[in-house]
Each structure stands twice: as C-alpha cells, then as structure tokens.
Amino acid sequence: MATDYSTFHEPTSDLFERLAAVSDLSPFRLTDEQIAHYHEFGYLAGVRILDDAQIEHLRAELAELVQPDHDGRSLWYEYNSNESSDPDLVLFHALGAWRTRPGFHDMLWNPAFTVAASQLLGGAVRFWHDQLFCKPAHHGGVVAWHQDYSYWKRTQPMAHLTCWIGLDDATADNGCLQYVPGSHRWPLLPITGLAGDMQAIGEVLSEQQMHQLQNPTAIELKAGECAFHHPLMVHGSFANRTDRPRRAAVLNVVRDGVCSADDKPLLDGTDPVPAGQPLAGRYFPLLFDGEGSL
C-alpha cells in the first residue's frame, strides 16, 4: 500500500533544509523592495527556491506521477492526464502530489518558500493545496486567463498566496506564466474555464480591463525559480510548441486563521472543516508560524 504523506507534518527527508536547524533566516528573507513590488503589481518573480539537486529529484518523482498506473494513484484530490478538451493540446493538471511522494511533500516546508510566503501574507503560513501543471513538448496546452480565488471562495477571508515553481526553464515560447500587472485590484470575476479558450474571460471584462489584458507580462523563469502572486491576479499561459517540456509545481497557502465557508469537504477525500472554523488538521498543516519555527 502506498504511503500517504499527509500523515507527516514535518519533512521526511534531507532534501530541503529543516527550519529547526536554521539559526539565521536572513538568506531566505525577501527585501523591502521585493515586498513592495508584490503589493504594487500583484506578483513577485525570479525568486530562487530550488537548487539543481532538488530540481532533479522532483523531476524524477514527476516522471512516475504522470504514469496513469503509478503507486499512490488513489491519493490525488484531482488528476487530469489532459484537462484540455483538445487531444492535440495536452495540459497535465493534478492536485495532491504532496500526499504521494516525499520530495513534493517536503517541499512544503522548504524555508526558501515558507519564509518568503510569511512575509507576503503578513503572518503564519498554512497549507491549502498543491498543483502540478505540465505541458509536453510540441503540443502543450494553454491555461486560460483566470483568478485563483474564483475557485477558492469556500475559504474565507481572502488571505491566500500562490507560488508557481518552474521545474524547467519557462519562456514565452514554451508557455510561461503571463500576468496582467495590477489586476489584483480588480473585483472577483466569474469562472470562465481553465484549460480551453484563452479569450473566454473577455465575456466578463470591462473595456478598460480588456485593454489591460492585451498587454500582459511574460514571466520567464529559470528552473528552480518561482513567482508569487495574489489570489486576484489575472494570469494564464499560452501553448508550448517548442521541443522542450514546461513542467511546474504550484504551492497554494493561506495566512493562518483563514476559515472554511462550507460544511462539505474542501478537497475530494479530505475531512470536512465545519463552516466558520479555521483550516487545520491532517490535510491543512501549519508550515511556518511567522516567528522562525513551527
């Protein structure tokens, strides 16, 4: 039987530094200028949080996870070998890798991630859920324009943060993230689809918003670098037509104290968190208390 790593609320390997063994957090802290950029534009890109050995380890685990019959297949919250309706444009998208493999589990406690996340959230960091987004070479599909929080309204208040981590170099040619700077100040938009028509969001935008959408910023990253973004940031990514894959892991977290707004399970297969109660328990561990320890 596969190990379910959600039962472990601490690192299970030495792949990442352990926060308890780190006496000085300054190497992991963002600068005041980086934090100001995030608040002004809704994102911060180019933060290195994985080294080469960690990248290779995660790539090896990912190679197992994209095989449909892999060990631990039943542990996913959601698993889509191709979320696109077009078989010629493939988008692998899955939620729950942290439960299936030690590297993707232990990455949650990576201080290069948790310390920066705490600064941007302004408090203690609690896990929400993870994602994998993979676009194969030559026919990798799109991720349509959207706001993350439009999918997360069952958790309130809105004090969320997304960290998109490149497992390959991400470029405009192979389908890197694209942001609409400043769109984190837009109101919450309706869901218009995640893996299909890039222009579907136009149905719900004003003329001014549509104008801003025409000039997005391509977030090109080296493997091991990440981009943090606000839950209302409008973002998407275009197709991969290159001869290289574009693989990414995404960590979604909340400031500790965010509550469930639904008595039903927030993710498939998890225990319900009663409406009005803070996220906690086996599936929503505390990653960093904001003071340098757990």
TrEMBL record:
Its cofactor is Fe(2+). It holds the Pfam family PhyH. The keyword Repressor does not apply. It comes from the Bacteria. The keyword Oxidoreductase applies. Keywords: Dioxygenase, Oxidoreductase. GO terms for molecular function: 2-oxoglutarate-dependent dioxygenase activity; iron ion binding. InterPro entries: Phytyl_CoA_dOase-like. This is Phytanoyl-CoA dioxygenase (PhyH). It comes from Rosistilla oblonga.
